[in-house]
Amino acid sequence: MRRKTVFTGIVLTLAVCFAGCGAQEGQEQESAGQGQEMTEEELEEEGDRIRGIYDVESQSAIREGLDAEKREKAYTSDDMLVEYNPFGTNTQSLYVYFQTDVPVSVSCTVHVEDESIPDYTQQLTEDSSYLLEHEYQVIGLVPDMENEITFALTGTDGQTEEQTITYEMGSLMGQEEVQLETEEGNSVEDVVVRLNVTDGTVDEVLDLGDLFGAYKETCVENSDGDLDWMHINTIQWMGDGQVLFSSRETSSIIKIKDLYSTPAVEYMISDPAVWADTEWADLVLEKSGDFASQGGQHSITYVKDESLPEGQYYLYMFNNNIGVSETRPDFDWSVIDGIQSEAVDGTTSYYYKYLVDETSGSYELVESFELPYSGYVSSVQEIGDNVVADSGMQGIWGEYDSENNLIRSFTMEKESFIYRVYKYEL
Predict the structure, then answer these.
(1) In this predicted model, what pLDDT tens digit does every residue of 375-393 receive, in sequence order?
(2) Strand runs (DSSP E) across 281-329, as ranges?
(3) How many helices (H) and strands (E) does the chain have?
(4) Ramachandran area for residue 281 (φ above 0: left; ψ -120 to 50: alpha; else beta)
(5) What is the pTM of this model?
(6) What is the per-residue pLDDT across 73-122, written as a single tens digit (0 to 9) for each?
(7) Taking the CB of the first residue and of the last residue of the chain, which one, N or C, has fewer CB atoms within 10 A?
(8) Which part of the chain has CATH 2.60.40.10?
(9) CB 139 within 8 A of CB 90
(10) Who contacts 387 (Cβ-Cβ below 8 Å, separation ≥6)?
(11) If you classify domain 23-28+36-168 with CATH, what class do you get?
């Protein structure tokens, strides 16, 4: 038996929008479409509504409305401002605002009268802060049930006061499962599933073990007892059933074709040594130029550029520059020049941008610059001519200009790491 961690790219994004944003905005209304498949016209209308939700002007107007409500009176811990999902982006959430006379840290627990659904506790105040003004999103509400939400307000002296509110959560639009079943086992982050946003059904699209079975058999469990042999940390949708996977454990970028019919590996971007003496060795693209291969990369991003010839595209990433594979402990990662072997105590990671030529079966490094080292997690994002980069293990992120000069960086206190950082214009 295996525990399968679900990964999707655009499929999951669409699922969140249609299944999530389709929840009711009242406590007692029932969705007209519940239990029925939506027509094409209804889907189009729903799509228009969702696009409206993510419109900058709409979100700004909602923000202004909330700010106006906050000014109407003095909201306290025993008289909170509570609004259901005001921004329309999280259907099982509440917006909560109040002030306290003394600085407190706030957590909350969501409870329903159903023994099969365990209580859900979340820390609302981040970074162990103690605040006077409190503005939170409470998530994890259970549809079609009365939710009892208990807030724990803890002062700097360690004393805790509790306040409880109840909220009657309405129905979701579809018939999606609220509580998911799990499969125990130890194979992780190696399966892709698809969610049908019309009827809520989920089906398995790809098990990478089916494509790399012989390689998987050579791998061993890591120190946590998991067989994290592939560790897919990013999926990029290329269209027409083609996707790119970023595999941290193999320091490889894998292109899959015919995802929904007969999935197959089309090619890989990797140091040739990783796949030497295997049946996949001939699928590694040829490196054009003298540069070190990426190691343990994260947040790969596919860029289709109309100025490029047919068959070419750009691909950029956070090149962690780490060579560690617990599931393949005998592999010598020093074949990659300058690669590091520690999650935190390394010297340099990089922004990498490749030009990939599928026609010639080659790729070249067209841009790179040094970033603060982070062995795991992390991200990069192109914004115009600038790049936003997150070195997650250090808790450092910053923005770099078109000449790769640092404009400004920020450091955040953290318990372990910062997973991703992205910048959006409002």
Answers:
(1) 999 999 999 999 999 999 9
(2) 286-287, 298-303, 312-319
(3) 6, 22
(4) alpha
(5) 0.60
(6) 999 999 999 999 998 888 889 999 999 999 999 999 999 999 889 898 88
(7) C
(8) 23-28+36-168
(9) yes
(10) 351, 380, 381, 399, 400, 404
(11) mainly beta
